[in-house]
Amino acid sequence: MKQNRRAFLQSAPALFLGGAFYHQTNKLQLHALPEEGIDSAAYWKMLRKHFPLRNDLVYLNNGTMGPSPYYVIEQTQQGMLEADEDANYGGWENTHQQLAAFIGADETEIALTRNVTEGINIICNGLSLTKGDEVIITTHEHGGNAFPWLNIARNKGVILRTFTPAPTADETLNRLEACISKRTKVIAVPHILCTQGQILPIKEISALGKRNQLFVFIDGAHGPGMVKLNMKELGCDAYATCCHKWMLGPKGTGFLYINKNAFEKVQPIFVGAGSDNAKWTMATQPPTMGDFAPSAHRYYAGTFNAGLYKGVIAALQFIESVGEERWIKRIETLGNYTQQQLLNTDKVEMLTPVEQKSRSGVIGFRIKGINSTSFYELASKQRIRIRQVHENGLNSLRVSTHIYNHTSEVDKLIELIKKS
Length: 420
Ligand SMILES: Cc1ncc(COP(=O)(O)O)c(C=O)c1O
Fold this sequence. Notes:
The chain is α/β, with parallel strands linked by helices. It contains 14 helices and 13 strands. The protein has a domain at 95-317: Type I PLP-dependent aspartate aminotransferase-like (Major domain) (Aspartate Aminotransferase, domain 2, 3-Layer(aba) Sandwich), CATH 3.40.640.
């Protein structure tokens, strides 16, 4: 059996990852990350070897999908293999505890999901909103947060009040506050705008929501792995996110934080085995339901893929092995570098605020005199992967960098902009 497993692990990665390069680099174990010279360019160059990401690809689109390191991929594969070797059911049950610790929440406040969108739908369908109730949302939403609320607006007659984030956190807060009316029930905004990487002042937004007795929901797609999180400090009622962007975890894994004081406000809609408190039976007349689980497990149910969740734990271990502070600093440094280099060209209209606390690893801009689609296509031909932002009529471009990137990759993009 052991031999079979080895044979599988040697052949399967070759299938998925293209062979020789993988076999060469998978010898780099997690504990091989050096302690010395850890902030040097050499360190970050070495770290890139932990990723299957091809070297001929300048990948500047982490905001869409974070490529996993080999360690995460291996652990995911191994988790799947182990589950099938012994035909065991389960293996994901403790993931929520580690995710809770990572974002400063209580373990009872985490629901596992497949992605951010699922978490958003749990909240917006679970809140008891009625005709004429108002929800405050930005003009910079991703479809994942826009469409569920638009759907609620259509189905229930809820009114969406929009505001455009301003270049400073203070002014953004003022604009949001100006949208509050007697009929406002919910604030549903992103932590970090997918369009231009702007960090919204969530702590202050939560405090504002609390003063006005509003439910504060945060689309946190770009939060964990990008910025240090502590849910108790942020103070929101709910925060939906994923592991497949900035945490560099397996694709199709996410989680939703719901403050336990908010359980009563969010009705579980999508329920089943696991959402209950083990008191249900069909053997009584009439059948007995019992109640929901006393934790956020009331919001999710059924079977999960143990391998994917072993991969999520591996992603947390990988972050820890680099050091969360150093990881976040690296993202910040590359984001600052990208913005500065873009500004230096004099060819761009910068959309991301220059205010330090509002800026992240995602930078949005337009190139003066060049259509965004044309530049996007030109960059793609040069194997430079960025993102076009067509949402909300913005017609702009977005660059997002992570720890596996190097400044020389940003420089390639800048050269192309200068030549265009
Ligand atoms: C701000 C934001 N919200 C929601 C989503 C949807 O995420 P998912 O595909 O994990 O549901 C994204 C994806 O890019 C996003 O950027």
